UniProtKB/TrEMBL annotation:
Superkingdom in the source lineage: Eukaryota
Gene: Cfap77
One Pfam family in the UniProt entry: CFAP77
InterPro entries with a match to the protein in the record: CFAP77
Annotated protein name in UniProt: CFA77 protein
Length: 180
């Protein structure tokens, strides 16, 4: 409700002076005296986590015992509840890999490019040689493919290779065209 005789306000009132913004954390440290006096450590919680079922192992066991229907499989799951192994007990978490003391992780840095090779355009020449070798290999491959492909024999190609014998011109004429 607006105050009597005044318009309605369009904002909220601020809290009092004793209000503190943010979250209240009851377990904050006690400052310097507590740090000097004792260590305030948090005891680790032991959480018993139920691992998911290992259906691969259970299905294999059920098949070995001769179960085939879904009902038999469910009864087998209730009888032998096999769970997946926890990652905490894996061999990688138990013992870290043995590495030498001076071992450095990561990718080694590339050696610097010699400036003399850059000035002589050596990398350009190497690239040009690779391109020439590649084109020569492609040409040789094309020639090989053309040689391997058999050209189909058509009538035209056959007549070019083996032309028909030329007919000899006969001197025979019609009798009425002959000169008397």
């Amino acid at each position: 409700q607006p105050e009597l005789g005044r318009p309605r306000r369009n904002c909220y009132t601020l809290p009092g002076f004793d209000f503190s913004y943010g979250l209240y954390l009851p377990r904050t440290d006690g400052g310097v005296p507590e740090a000097i006096g004792r260590w305030n450590t948090v005891k680790p919680r032991i959480s018993v986590r139920k691992m998911p079922r290992d259906f691969i192992t259970m299905n294999l066991g059920a098949l070995k015992e001769g179960y085939t229907t879904a009902r038999e499989f469910n009864l087998y799951y209730k009888l032998k509840d096999i769970r997946q192994k926890d990652d905490e007990y894996s061999r990688f978490k138990r013992s870290p890999p043995n590495v030498p003391a001076d071992f450095t992780y990561g990718i080694p840095t590339r050696s610097s490019t010699p400036i003399f090779d850059l000035l002589q355009h050596k990398y350009k020449e190497l690239w040009m040689e690779q391109q020439r070798a590649r084109t020569a290999a492609k040409r040789a491959e094309k020639k090989k493919v053309i040689i391997l492909q058999q050209v189909r024999e058509t009538r035209t190609t056959f007549l070019r290779k083996h032309p028909p014998p030329v007919k000899e011109e006969s001197f025979w004429h019609l009798p009425y065209l002959e000169k008397v």
